[in-house]
Amino acid sequence: MLLLSLSVSVASGVSLARAQNYEQLWNVCQGDMRNEETLRSCSAVISSGRVTGKGLAGAFVNRGVVYDHLGQYDTAIQDFDQAIKLEPNLSLAFMNRGVAHLHKRAFDQAIRDFDEALKTDRHFLAFFNRGLAYAYKGQYQRAIRDFNQALVLNPDSVEALTYRGMALHHNGQNELAMKDYDQVIELVPTNAQALASRGSLYVAAGKYDRAIEDFDRSIKIAPNNPQAFSDRGSAYLSKGQYDQAIQDYDQSIKLAPNAAIGFNNRGIAYSRAGQFDRAMEDFDRALKLDPTSARALTNRGIAYLRMNQLDAAIATFDSAYRMNRRNSPALFGRGIAKRKKGDIAGGDADMAAAAAMSPDVAEFMASEGVTP
Length: 372
Description:
By secondary structure, the protein is mostly helical. It has helices at about 20-30, 35-50, 55-70, 75-85, 90-105, 105-120, 125-135, 140-155, 160-170, 175-185, 190-205, 210-220, 225-240, 240-255, 260-270, 275-290, 295-305, 310-325, 330-340, 345-355, 360-365. It has 21 helices and no strands.
């Protein structure tokens, strides 16, 4: 999660001691470094009693920024609270408290803080970070509006363009998302995140070779990103190049061994390659990591169906459908299995209900190698 925050640089309200060591402490507290030395300096300034008003509020904000940077979010929030008590209209205190809440994934509290910050200062970072909060809540339209405002203030912000592209992608506006990623890559050709994100759009558009080119470039720049390997694996999977897909999923799993999605994806590749024993092992490992993964259960059901183990397929699809009543592939797959067992009416009912939910479900299942 990319977050941007600011420290406060203030002098008003400060009664600086003439002693050089105190002046040095204050200068360090106001500086850009976010380390233990800054923390000690701000603490010394705060406890000295020599700084008041806006200056004291600024020292609390700057110490809070350091605590946030060190991952001590609750302590950071306490400092921002103190700053706000001293200066209720200090927008940077609200904005930085919002960042700490974002780090804690307390999105609603973060949004309220950014709202307060924007009442007195329409700052780029307040719009940008509020956009992030809305995006993480899945409210992509509101996120896009905030990223738009941020880009009005800073049109060449690579961060705002990148995250607006992501929000547009999630909102189904892939052409606009592509334009944002193109602009980011034009500004910074070595932006690994934008390259990987554009690659994902190419996969969605069926342009697998162009996707692989972007993933290759992204991985060369940032070789420890498991998502890039996973997404390149998906491009190879769509091309039917199962060995290459499995190699990429292997690397994704190596980099993120506790992520269920890696095992799920490799299981799909093994299943399509006809290596059903290895596919089942991967689906089992995915479900051990995430017992609530309807996706892994559905894919295991597809493997059972391809193996003609119809009772196991029905039971697995049934479990996946109970987890998510909008899971049309599980319902359609159960229908296929029922038909193959001779329950034509029950199978047709399942498939019809699945098609009503997702008109392209039959096409998807056919791409997985299963048809009625």
